[in-house]
From TrEMBL:
TM region(s), chain numbering: none
Protein's UniProt keywords contain Chaperone: no
UniProt keyword list: Cobalamin biosynthesis, Methyltransferase, S-adenosyl-L-methionine, Transferase
Recorded family membership: Belongs to the precorrin methyltransferase family.
Listed GO biological process terms: cobalamin biosynthetic process; methylation
Every Tetrapyrrole methylase domain range: 2-207
Group of enzyme by EC: transferase
Species in which this protein is naturally found: Ferrimonas aestuarii
Any GO molecular function: precorrin-4 C11-methyltransferase activity
Pathway: Cofactor biosynthesis; adenosylcobalamin biosynthesis
Gene name tied to this protein: cobM
NCBIfam families: cobM_cbiF
Name of this protein: Precorrin-4 C(11)-methyltransferase
Length: 262
C-alpha cells in the first residue's frame, strides 16, 4: 500500500501528468485539495473509489485517512495543486507517514509559475540578460526568514515568481521599488490555465491599482522581471549554427588530443 502525492497541475484538468492521471484512475481512495484542485481532475476516479476533499481537514484528519486506507491495504491518491515541491505541506505530511510506517511516493506536476509563464507566452530566462528564477512569497501572516526578504532577493535582478502574495501587492510593489525603478515590469496572472484566467501586465508604479481594480486577491502569480516583454536580447547559442559547428570541431580536437584534455 502506498500514498501517492500527485501534482494536479495549475487547474486545467489536462495539465496533470499521464502518470498522475493513471494513479487517480486506479487508486481506491482519492484525497484532493478541494479548494484548489478542480473537480474535473478527480472526476477520472473509479466509480467505487472513496473521493474526499481535504478542504475542511486538518493534518491529523489527513493522516487518519491514510492510516485507515493503510489498514485496508488500499492505495491513496493525494492530489494537490501544481507541483508538490512548492508550498504544498508535503514535508509535514510525509514526516507523519514515516512515523506511522506508511509508504509514500511523489509524482511531479506542472507548477502554477510555469502555467503563468505559459499564459504570458514568456520565457523566464533570456540569454545574457537573466539566467536565474527565484520562487518565493511575500511575508504576511506566514513569516519568511529575514535572510530571504524581498529586497535582498530583488537585488539579484533575477526573475521573481511570487506565490501566495496577491493580497500583499501593495507591500510587494513598495519593497521592490526600494531596489528597482518604478517602470520595472511586473505581471499578475490569476487562475492560470483555468477558463477564467486573467492577465495583468504593468509596472511597479501601475500594478497596485490594476490588481485592486480587477479585485484579484488569491490564486494569482506575481512575476517580476526585466525579461517581461523584452525583445532586445541576443539569440542563445542553443540554435546558433556556428556554435553547433564549433562544438563538432571541439570534439574532433578533443579526441585527437586523447582522453583527459577535453
Ligand atoms: N504547489 C503549488 C503552489 C501552492 S501555493 C504550485 O506548484 O503551483 C498556492 C499559490 O499558488 C497561490 O497563492 C498562487 O500564488 C499560486 N497558484 C496556484 N494555482 C494558480 C493558478 N492557476 N494561477 C496562478 N497562480 C496559482
Amino acid at each position: 500500500m502506498t500514498v501517492f502525492f500527485i501534482g494536479a497541475g495549475p487547474g486545467d484538468p489536462d495539465l496533470i501528468t499521464v502518470k498522475g492521471a493513471r494513479l487517480v484512475e486506479q487508486c481506491p481512495v482519492v484525497l484532493y485539495t478541494g479548494s484548489l484542485v478542480p473537480k474535473e481532475v478527480v472526476a477520472r476516479a473509479r466509480e467505487d473509489a472513496l473521493v474526499l476533499s481535504s478542504e475542511d481537514m486538518d493534518l491529523d484528519q489527513i493522516v487518519a485517512v491514510c492510516r485507515d486506507a493503510h489498514g485496508e491495504g488500499k492505495d491513496v491518491a493525494r492530489v494537490q495543486t501544481g507541483d508538490l515541491s512548492i508550498y504544498s505541506s508535503l514535508a509535514e505530511t510525509t514526516r507523519r507517514l514515516d512515523e506511522e510506517g506508511i509508504d509514500w511516493k511523489v509524482v511531479p506536476g506542472v507548477s502554477s509559475f510555469q502555467a503563468s509563464a505559459a499564459a504570458l507566452g514568456q520565457e523566464l530566462t533570456l540569454p545574457e540578460e537573466c539566467q536565474t528564477i527565484i520562487l518565493s512569497r511575500a511575508s504576511g501572516r506566514t513569516p519568511v526568514p529575514e535572510k530571504e526578504n524581498l529586497k535582498s532577493l530583488a537585488e539579484h535582478e533575477a526573475t521573481l515568481c511570487l506565490f501566495l502574495s496577491a493580497s500583499l501587492i501593495r507591500k510587494v510593489a513598495r519593497e521592490l521599488k526600494e531596489v528597482y525603478p518604478g517602470d520595472w515590469p511586473i505581471a499578475v496572472v490569476e487562475k492560470a490555465s483555468h477558463p477564467e484566467q486573467r492577465i495583468l501586465r504593468g509596472t511597479l508604479d501601475t500594478i497596485v491599482e490594476q490588481v485592486e481594480e480587477a479585485g484579484i486577491k488569491a490564486t494569482a502569480m506575481i512575476i517580476v522581471s526585466k525579461v517581461l516583454g523584452q525583445t532586445d536580447f541576443r539569440d542563445s547559442r542553443l540554435y546558433a549554427a556556428e556554435f553547433t559547428h564549433g562544438f563538432r570541431k571541439a570534439r574532433v580536437a578533443a579526441s585527437r588530443c586523447g582522453a583527459g584534455h577535453e
